[in-house]
C-alpha cells in the first residue's frame, strides 16, 4: 500500500480515502438498534399483582407463575411434563431452550402446591396429553399435546389488557 500511494494521482488518493471513509461509516458508525427491542416490559410488584388477579384460569395462572418465579421461557413453560418433576424434592428438571443444557430448578412451595392441585384436578386430561401439565384445550386445532406458544402469548396480552397495564413502561438503556 505504501508503494502504491506515492504513484497514484491526487484525485485517485482522494477517491480511495472517500471509499474507505464510507465503508468505515457504514460498518462502524451506523445507529445501533438493540437486537431484542427497546422497551423494558418488566412489571412492578403492584402490576404483577394486578396481572395475576386478572387471570381467570388456574392453568394460565400457574403457567405464568412458572415463568415469573422460575424464569422459564414460554417454550420451556408450555412443555412442562409431570415426568420432569421430582415430587419428593420439589425439583423440576428440564432442557433449557437457549443453552440446550439440562437444568434443575427448585419449585417454590406455594407454586408447587398450586401445581399439584392442577395436576390432581386435571389428572385424566394430563394423562391423555402424555403428561404435559399445560395440555391443549379439547376444541383446539393444535396437533401438539400442549398449548401453542402463540396462543399463550395471546392470552398474556389479553390478561395484560384486563389488568389495565398495557401501556409502554419505559425506554431501556440499550436504545440510546
Architecture (CATH level 2) name of the largest domain: Orthogonal Bundle
CATH homologous superfamily (4th level) name of the largest domain:
Intergrase catalytic core
What is the name of the CATH class of the largest domain?
Mainly Alpha
* Secondary-structure content class: mainly alpha
Strand order of the largest sheet: 1-2-3
* Low-confidence sequence ranges: 33-39
Shape label: elongated
Q: Mean pLDDT, as a whole number?
A: 85
Number of helices: 7
Rounded to the nearest angstrom, the distance between the terminal CA atoms is: 38 Å
Radius of gyration: 26 Å
How many independent structural domains? 2
Percentage of β-strand residues:
5-15%
Assign a percent range to the helix content.
40-55%
CATH topology of the largest domain: hpI Integrase, Chain A
- The count of β-strands is 3
Order of helices and strands: HHHHEEEHHH
**Main sheet makeup:** 3 strands, antiparallel
Element layout with pairings:
Layout: H1 10-28, H2 45-54, H3 58-70, H4 74-78, E1 85-86, E2 91-95, E3 102-106, H5 109-121, H6 123-128, H7 149-162
Antiparallel strand pairs: 1-2, 2-3
Amino acid at each position: 500500500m505504501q508503494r502504491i500511494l506515492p504513484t497514484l494521482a491526487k484525485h485517485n488518493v482522494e477517491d480511495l480515502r472517500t471509499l474507505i471513509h464510507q465503508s468505515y461509516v457504514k460498518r462502524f458508525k451506523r445507529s445501533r438498534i438493540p437486537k431484542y427491542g427497546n422497551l423494558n416490559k418488566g412489571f412492578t410488584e403492584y402490576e404483577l399483582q394486578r396481572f395475576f388477579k386478572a387471570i381467570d384460569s388456574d392453568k394460565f395462572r400457574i403457567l405464568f407463575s412458572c415463568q415469573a418465579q422460575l424464569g422459564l421461557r414460554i417454550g420451556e413453560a408450555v412443555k412442562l411434563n409431570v415426568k420432569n418433576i421430582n415430587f419428593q424434592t420439589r425439583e423440576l428438571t428440564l432442557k433449557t431452550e437457549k443453552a440446550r443444557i439440562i437444568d434443575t430448578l427448585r419449585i417454590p412451595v406455594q407454586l408447587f402446591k398450586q401445581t399439584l392441585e392442577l395436576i390432581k384436578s386435571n389428572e385424566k386430561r394430563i394423562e391423555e396429553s402424555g403428561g404435559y401439565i399445560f395440555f391443549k384445550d379439547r376444541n383446539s386445532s393444535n396437533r401438539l399435546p400442549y398449548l401453542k406458544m402463540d396462543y399463550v402469548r395471546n392470552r398474556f396480552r389479553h390478561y395484560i389488557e384486563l389488568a389495565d397495564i398495557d401501556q409502554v413502561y419505559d425506554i431501556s438503556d440499550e436504545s440510546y
